Structures are given as C-alpha cells and as structure tokens.
Amino acid sequence: MSGMTFEPLSGVCFGARVSGVKLADMDADSFRAFYDQWLEYGLLVVGGQFLDRGQQVAFAKRFGDLEFDIAEIGNMRKDGTLRPDDGSDDMMKINRGNMGWHHDSTYMPVQAKGAVFTAEIVPQEGGATGFADMRHAYDALDDAMKARIEGLRCHHSLYHSQAKVGHQAAPVKDSSVNPDDNSGKTYGGYGFHEGPVSVRPLVKVHPETGRRNLLVGRHAYDIIGMASDESEKLLQELVDFACQPPRIYHHDWEAGDVVIWDNRRLMHQATPWPFTQARRMWHSRIAGSPETEAALAA
After folding, report:
1. Beta-bridge partners for 270
2. What sign for the dihedral angle of Cα 16, 18, 23, 28?
3. Which domain, by its residues, includes 129?
C-alpha cells in the first residue's frame, strides 16, 4: 500500500487519479484501500498500466463476479481493418448509441455494479469518455423536483435506446458481447434479449454508501403512470440538469490507461472520433448484486 496516492480530479466534484501502484500486483491491503477510495470518488483513473487481457479480467474479478469477462470496444475488426461507418455495421451503431449518457446494463435483469475499462489503441483526436456524477446531481435538485420524482419508476431497454440512432435490432437467442465473425456486420447481440422490459426507480439508493443517486440516461423511457411525451420531457430535463459542470469529467485516453467506475453512481458516454482512425478499448463489466440491482416489477 505504500506509495499509492489519490489526487482528486481538477474542477469536478468526483473522481481521482491514482499513482504509485501497479494494479496487476496489488496486495490485499492495497486493494481494500483502493476499493474504499473507489466508493468515495466513484471514478478512479490509473495511467501507465498496460494490462493484458488476463490481468484485466483478474483485476476486475477483485470487485466481484463479472457480468462478462471482457469485450472489445472500438472500430476495429479482428484482423485490424476498420469497420465502415455507413450504416452496414451493427457494432458501429452500438458505438453511436453509446454516445448518449447512460448507466450500463439497466436494460438487463440485473444492473451492473461497475466496470474496468482500458485503452490499447487510441485515436490521434477525439474518443474521450465522459462521466457524470448522479449522486451530486440528485443532491443538487431542488426540493420540489426531489418530491416530484420520489417513487417514480420507468422502463429501460436497449431496443428503445438503439432505435433512436436508427438501429432496429431483432431478438438474439444466444447473445454475446463480441462479434463472432470478421465480416464487420455482426454484433454479438448482448442486451437484445427476449423477455420483460426492465423497470427501475428514478432515484436509487446506493447499496454500499446509502446515498441517493439519479438513475436515468438513454435506456430510460415511459415513466409508469405518465404520458409518453411528459415522461420524455422529464427524463431529458433530469439528464440535462445532471450532466453539467462540476458534475462531469471527460477522460482523454492514453494507451495503457485504466479507468474503473461505479455504475450505480455514475453515468458515462462515448464521444466521437474520426472513424478513419483506429480505436481499441477493452471493457470488463462487474456484475451487480441481484439483491440490490435487480429490475423491479412493472
């Protein structure tokens, strides 16, 4: 644990940059301290790690069971060629959809706890990842809005959010997180499952900190008991309010960076980059607890 330091990110109300540590070699005491600071800050940024895939999965598993071990995120096929951005590639449609603010896996039966995200190949410009602190966003709401949204529930669906970017997906029986061929046209279909649509509260109590957080984002729609247009207006109002300084941070990646975020507290978004430039990132998703992160009954 000696030498590990946490420097708060400048100009924002959450997040810290960690130095003096090699994530692949952390002892138990160091990891306990790291985890406590992760809960405190919501987002930890660690540069110069260059984890291989096995090291990343092993590190992510220290946070709990994984929803999935590792997925490649970006615009590269397995053979290193670039995916076309002409509407023919479903993975690129997912990339575009992810540019909307969201929590991961709110559309699944159990919402994710968090994620470990690493950079292998980064473009020369663009491609930052944005984060928004939904705990501070809730705290900043006025009393009237807090009272208005208390107890409200809404639906969450990847079909809904992807349709907004023109991605009309069909259910996939055996979905995966990665494409299974090299044509560039196949997305693994994760999240496009059959079954009931997840329902979640607009205000979620964090199971480990006890703090209230807004739970909205691009997958959310149709607040129960509210007309669709009124629901859409309120949900967008909450996102617009939440995603303002000092509650947002955009991370400009360097190869070897590792970012770990608490998905129960933070929303995030991809940002554009020139799709003629390669970008290859690796995402390990930490599973949420079924006791605290399961979808509600409609």
Report:
1. 129
2. negative
3. 5-289
Closest CA to 178 of 80, 58, 74: 74
Q: CATH code at 184?
A: 3.60.130.10
Query: What DSSP line would sit under 173-184, residue for residue?
Result: TT-BSS-SSSSS
Q: Is residue 71 part of a domain?
A: yes
Distances in whole angstroms, Cα of residue 102 to Cα of each of 33, 133, 189: 28, 11, 18
Residues in the chain: 298
Domain count, the chain: 1
% of the chain exceeding 90 in pLDDT: 83
Residue 284 lies inside a defined structural domain of this protein: yes
Task: Give tens-digit pLDDT for 97-134.
Answer: 999 999 999 999 999 999 999 999 999 999 999 999 99
**pTM beyond 0.85, yes or no:** yes
- Element of type H or E holding 57: helix 53-61
Residue 225 resides in a domain: yes
pLDDT digits (tens, 9 = 90+) for 131-151: 999 999 999 999 999 999 999
Please state, in angstroms and rounded to a whole number, the distance separating the CA atoms of residues 199 and 94: 22
219 lies in some domain:
yes
